[in-house]
Amino acid sequence: MQIHEVRTRRSADDFPRSQHLATKIAEIAADPVAVPPETEAMVINRIIDNAAVSAASVLRRPVTVARVQALAHPRAGGASVFGVDGTVSAEWAAWANGVAVRELDFHDTFLAAEYSHPGDNIPALVAVGQQLGVSGADLIRGLATAYEVHVDLVKGICLHEHKIDHVAHLGPAAAAGLGTMLRLDPDTIYDAIGQALHLTTATRQSRKGLISSWKAYAPAWAGKVAVEAVDRAMRGEGSPAPIWEGEDGVIAWLLSGPEHTYQVPLPAPGEPKRAILDTYTKEHSAEYQSQAPIDLARRMRERIGDLDQIASIVLHTSHHTHVVIGTGSNDPQKFDPDASRETLDHSVMYIFAVALQDGTWHHERSYAPERAHRPDTIELWRKISTVEDPEWTRRYHSTDPAEKAFGAKAVVTLKSGETIVDELAVADAHPLGARPFAREQYIAKFTELADGVVDVEEQQRFLGAVQDVSAAGPGDLSALNVRVDQLVLDKAPTIPGGIF
């Protein structure tokens, strides 16, 4: 890897385009380096993973709204919308499928200087690949780039410190991945990256306080913007430049300002793209930093015994966990039984309480209103708090995979004064966890979440197609769409009319 120093430059400075971060990323995207077999295998795993969570979310209102919007833009020879026949314009398929993937907070993640869900790149690339008749091999190449760029930006540039939403890294990553997939030249990719970043920078209020369904829509918006940016760039349109380093650019006014230098790692020319191997998926439908606490709660419940005897629970954890999903957020909504599902999945206090009581976690039952309103749950929930522990913060930011951690230490104090203490560094499903996810687990997750939504024959057809996607010829990517039985889709909520 090469480390690129990125800082603000004045318009009067001699700062050639060849030195812009967008150029460096575009050159990586245009590099014809082969995709390593392990990267290809993980790309396939994540396409399966996205299909799994899309099946689980297909009847939810936000997903239904996005699907209805997309279906209002039909296009012969276009792209598929998850679950249904027919094709629509690619950017609208990217939109609808992006919402389906993100709605349940249940797919892959990478955490470093910033948060991210790199699987959000997949809907945009698949949609464009379907519409333009791209081969399966080129789709895999494009996704390897999208993951690489996304992960490298997340390693190098913190957004949330300045209350900028993490999809600001997704837009440029998706644009770069599309550039690779379509075999575009570096200049075209450069302009697409600049446009995509310019139009996907927004505040992170979507993940603060009372969280709404926009949390699922924001990444889908970034994917749709990236598709449109690439289209314009292919037609010769330029972009704000230099988008990161400019005097009125992203770093100067949205991030750490003209005095700060960011260090962004990117592969050297000819270096294979392996960043997807640094990412990890979720066994549980909840914000990633609650994955290990769920497993910890399940492990501790027998040691604790009678939960009514608990006086307090303090979760010692990283700064990120404390301020994003813990009591350090100072969000009273995180203790409100009437809060939205999106808010509850960003409350580690609620999640730890339910996991302690139930010994399991379910993407629907654990968030059901009647579950959140159980008096014994509310009582336990409000006994739980978080504190930042510098050691957990250090491990969160560690670059050593063997010690990087997203977990917590739980200190349970009983009414008798006895304390029960346990900790878990990484979730069971993490690559270094007790039960790491491999192809078998991705397939099991798909079949479990597709049960009752997608018939068994269609499940098997999809799994066969996706596992052989590298051999798919031009026009064959439509096989990656999963059809949902119409009787199931008929159960979706009725959506009021809009503009489209």
Automatic annotation (TrEMBL):
Gene3D superfamilies: 2-methylcitrate dehydratase PrpD (3.30.1330.120). NCBIfam families: PrpD_hiGCgrampos (NF042438). SUPFAM superfamilies: 2-methylcitrate dehydratase PrpD (SSF103378). It comes from the Bacteria. Residues 19-262 form the MmgE/PrpD N-terminal domain. Belongs to the PrpD family. It comes from [Mycobacterium] wendilense. This is MmgE/PrpD family protein. Residues 284-467 form the MmgE/PrpD C-terminal domain.
